[in-house]
Amino acid sequence: RKEVEQDPGPFNVPEGATVAFNCTYSNSASQSFFWYRQDCRKEPKLLMSVYSSGNEDGRFTAQLNRASQYISLLIRDSKLSDSATYLCVVNMGTNTGFQKLVFGTGTRLLVSP
Amino acid sequence: ETGVTQTPRHLVMGMTNKKSLKCEQHLGHNAMYWYKQSAKKPLELMFVYSLEERVENNSVPSRFSPECPNSSHLFLHLHTLQPEDSALYLCASSLEAQKGGEKLFFGSGTQLSVL
After folding, report:
1. Which of B36, B43, B111 to mutate to test the interface with A (most CBs of A within 10 A)?
2. Is B53 on the interface with A (CB under 8 A)?
3. What is the nearest CA distance from A73 to chain B, expressed in angstroms?
4. What pLDDT score does B53 carry?
5. Which residues, in sequence order, are bridge partners of residue B12?
6. Can you give the pLDDT at residue A19?
7. Using one digit for the tens of pLDDT, what is the confidence trace for B13-32?
8. Which of A46, A107, B33, B66 has the CA that lies 20 to 30 A from A71?
9. Contact assessment for residue A106 and residue A87, using Cβ atoms and an 8 Å cutoff
10. pLDDT of residue B23
């Protein structure tokens, strides 16, 4: 089983649609979780952290389900500029106490007019 | 823009060449990282440095040799690479490297092609 698993997509949605991505992780001891966004041929950038209580930032909502070991990202009212690859990232930690961020392969979103 | 600068942006090298990738961060961070991103694969952590000390080597072949002379600079020395090493190499930094969910700031990456 992959450490972090995502549906690669692409998800093709029209502007204004609501779209949701899920991501599963294998290590139940993982402590912190993130969604990064990566545009084509660009570097990844942090979109939002994922907290146990869930969190919302404008049109974006992230949730964590520890029991089932998955995190989700919901995007409401999709914009053309939301087209990108969304990377699920899980901090697995190392035996030496340093963080080890493990990335999923990403889910590609295409928003069309 | 992110405070992490990588050079060169693109690099083409033969299998017998020796080259180096450079990364510089202007954020006052104490931790720096090298990641590899191949097509259709997730980002793979290669090395982690905390306060110039290597704290993680993720089973990377010896033809990749990192160097961290100070907390602001990170190099990746390349020699006798293979075509399968062609990928996007991303440098990142964070405030600390301790297990705490630190946000990573990435450079723009070096697109490497090995012929």
Report:
1. B43
2. no
3. 18
4. 83
5. B113
6. 97
7. 998 889 999 999 999 999 99
8. B33
9. yes
10. 98
